[in-house]
Structures are given as C-alpha cells and as structure tokens.
Amino acid sequence: MSHAQGPVEETAAGQRPAAGTAGRRRTGREILANGLRGALIGTVETMPGVSGGTVALVVMVYERLIASASALIVGVCGLVAGIFRGPERRAAALDRLRGVDWLLLLPLFAGMGVGILVMAHFMEDLAANHPVLMRAAFFGMVLVSLLVPIRLAGRWRRRDWVYMLAATAVAAVAVSLPSQTVTITPVTLMLCAALAVGALALPGLSGSFLLLALGVYEPTLAAVNDRDLGYLGVFLAGALVGGVLIVLALRRLLAVRHHATMVVITGLMAGGLRALWPWQAEDRSIVPADPATLWPVIGLVLAGAAVVGVGVYLERRMIAREAAHSEA
Fold first, then answer.
1. CB within 8 A of 232, min separation 6: which ones?
2. 1, 39, 280, 285 from 62: Cα distances, Å
3. Helix (H, G, I), strand (E, B) or coil at 58
4. Which of 119, 233, 267, 320 is deepest in the core (most CB within 10 A)?
C-alpha cells in the first residue's frame, strides 16, 4: 500500500513547482500588460479630446477597473468607519478589500502615472504645433473603438438608438463649447479636477478637453512639467473626490443597467468625435479641409483605425487564450 502511494505523492509534488512556475509567469505577464494598459490610458489623457475611459474600454479592463476601484473605495471607507463602529464593520471592510483586483489596479495606476509624466511634455508640443495631424490619428482610433461598447451592449433594440443619438448630441454640444477662462484658486482648481476625472471615467468625454475648455489645461501641464507640488496636491485632492463619486455611480449603473449604460457610452464616444475633427478653428468651429493636409489626415485616420482594430483583435485573442488556460 505504501509503495502504491509513493508515486502519487512524488507526481503531485513534482507537478506543484511546474504549476507554480506557470502561475508566476502568468502573473508577471498580467502585471506587465496592465502596466502597459495604464501607460496608454495616461498617455491619451494628456491629449485633449481623447478619453482615458475609451482606452480602458478598448483594452478590455473598463468594467474590472470600475468594480475594483469601487471595492477599494467602499473598503477604505468601511475601515475608517470601523474605527467608530466596531470590529464587525472592519471585518466587512476587509472582506470588501479582498475583492479588489490588485494585480489590475496597482500596475494600471503606476503605468498611468508614468504615461502622464513622460508624455506631458511631448503632447504639449504636438498639440500646439501639429493639432490637425494629432486629431486625425485619434479620430481614427476612437471611431473604430465604437465597436467595443456596441458589442458589449448585446442586442440593440429600436429605442436604444434613440438613447444613443441623445447621448451623441449631448456629447457633441459639450465638446463644441468655446473655451472659458477660470480664475485659478484652490476651490476652482479642485472643482475643475473633480469634473475632469469624472469625464476621464466616461468613455467619449475627455478630462483633458474639459480642462482645456475651462482654461486649466495649460497651467496643469506646466505644473506637471515643473513639478509644482502645491498645485498638483490641490489638483489631486479634487481628482480624488471626483473619482470616488463617479466610480461609485458607474459601478451601480453597470451592475443594474449594463445594457443601457453601454448604449449611452456608445453615444458619448460618438459625440466626442466632434472634438477630434481634424479641421477646426480656435473657437472649435468647423472649417473647410485644407488640401495641403488632406492626404496626411486621411492616412493618419486609417492608421489610427488600424492600430485600434489590431489591438482589439489581439486583446480578444489573449482573453480567449487565458480563459482556455483557466478551464484547463
């Protein structure tokens, strides 16, 4: 009997290191992939007109990100409340924190920070000196990205098109508003940051574009480049408040109205394309196409569309492969 058990124990012991090694490799790949996703989100957030939420949706982490961020917020609030309300509240908060996808959040936010810091200088120069070509590339990217929420919404009904068109009209009007100059004080800066982060979380609405419309975009980029910690501290405080509110609201909507939320997100993204139309004046009015830039613009629109199309295809292949590994 003992002789029969020996090979079983040896086989089991021999399989564990292999499984553990494979698990570590998958974990390492996941951390790296999420860091790159975060860098992409941070990079596009420095470009007015492009939403970080759109990128999160395209790289298939949007709903996981909202769910984990919501669990983190509720868990932290529960721990604070547990100081006054006893161990039961703390235990419930710890359970909530265990549901946070840390392998997603930590590398994603780290990547976002790196993307913003690295690209802020380059985007400031490109947006100032090559705005038509920059808008063209992102126009193609966002246009193809519409396929993602359309697919996630599932079966579309006749009334869904009405909701989508209404959201499209709202977003198009919002991104067509002329710039306003806001007097920068700690209070107004916090409010602008809160609104910008709310827009960041909604695909189709750009936080950077909102800052540009309020006249806070260039001062904020300058603060990032100059490492103005006082300005950035106030900005981050406002961003934290806005982020908490929008994440909790989106988590609720995705849980109870997933289909309708994806329909509206499709409309917001479609309306947001108005901000990325290549040829527009400083007051955001549409101007005739410039023949000198026509073919470069067409080429960049197609290139941007191709980049996102290939990215979505590869992302779906990777998710399918990971699902097959999990089942095995």
1. 223, 224
2. 54, 15, 31, 32
3. helix
4. 267
What is the distance between the alpha carbons of residues 88 and 96, in angstroms, rounded to a whole number? 13
Distance CA 123, CA 44 (A): 9
Judged by DSSP in three states, 180 sits in: coil
**Assigned token pair, 253:** 């909507």
Domains of the chain, residue spans: 2-327
Contacts of 295 (CB under 8 A, 6+ apart): none
229-256 helix and 258-272 helix, angle to the nearest 10 degrees: 130
Q: Which of 155, 207, 237 is nearest to 229 (CA)?
A: 237
* Nearest partner of 112 among 55, 48, 28, 195, judged by Cα: 55
Is residue 246 within 8 Å of 62, Cβ to Cβ? no
Q: How far is CA 287 from CA 122, 167, 172, in A?
A: 26, 24, 16
CB atoms within 10 A of CB 29: 12
pLDDT digit string, tens, across residues 100-140: 888 899 999 999 888 888 877 777 677 667 888 888 888 88
- In degrees and rounded to multiples of 5, residue 278 shows phi and psi of -60, -45
291, 284 Cβ separation under 8 angstroms: no
Q: What's the pLDDT tens digit per position in 178-223?
A: 766 777 888 888 988 898 888 778 877 777 777 877 778 778 888 8
Q: Report which secondary-structure segment, H or E, holds 249.
A: helix 229-256
What letters, b where the CB count within 10 A reaches 16 and e where it falls short, cover 268-289?
Answer: bbbbbbbbbbbbbeeebeeeee
Work out the angle at residue 158's Cα, subtended by the Cα atoms of residues 154 and 160, and round it to the nearest 5 degrees: 55
Place of tokens 């961003």: 239
CA nearest neighbour of 308 among 80, 142, 93, 109: 142
Phi, psi of 219 (to 5 degrees): -60, -35
* CB 290 within 8 Å of CB 279: yes
